[in-house]
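Hi team,

As requested, here is the filled-out complex form for the calcium ion run. I kept the field names the same as last time so the parser does not choke. Let me know if anything looks off before we queue the next batch.

— J.
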Amino acid sequence: MRKILIPVAAILLLTVASCGNSKQKALEESLKALAENTKKEIAKPAPENKSSMDADYLADTKGQWAIDAKASSTYATKIGKEASWSPEQMIGVPNVQKYGDNGNAWASKEQDKGEEWVKLTFEKEVNATEVRIKETYNAGAITKIVLYDNTNKSHVVYQAKSETKKNEMQYLVAKFPKTGYKTKMVKIVLDSKAITGWNEIDAVQLVGE
Ligand SMILES: [Ca+2]
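And here is what came back:
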């Protein structure tokens, strides 16, 4: 918008210079209005900021964020919480606020190798009703969610074809009837080949009581 306004202002200035005094005041006022509009444009917050998408989930007393994380592979070159793109980047509350490649999220070693998985552990065992996965880059590659009960038996609670590639942040929310078993471990399977580019995950929440 600013780029358009500046040439318009320049034309108006030239007009003012070649005009008689009678029209000058009106033109000066137009220029003033243009300048004010420009300020308003600049003052607008960035439209990409979608941090509010986390608010309801952060407030959910039945939701837990992961306390431990593992993955089939990682783009991280070092081990642990401090390493960008490590599995540990999925631990805790979401901390990626804008769509894009971000070291505060997990990324696999290769972009489009094929099947990848991540495994999250939560503090408290619950009868689960929902899993929420915050995808922050090249979203849509998740094909399966598996819960493990306290005998380590696996239960598939979500299975789907990968979605269409999304160039925006999203939560994949899988809802299912309350499990008859207790769980505190979630495995997420991704078809990284189906959605080109790194399919990054910022945080995972397990819902239940
Ligand atoms: Ca994160």
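Two things worth flagging: The beta strands are 63-65, 68-71, 115-126, 128-137, 142-149, 154-159, 170-175, 183-191, 200-208. The mean pLDDT is 84.

Thanks,
J.
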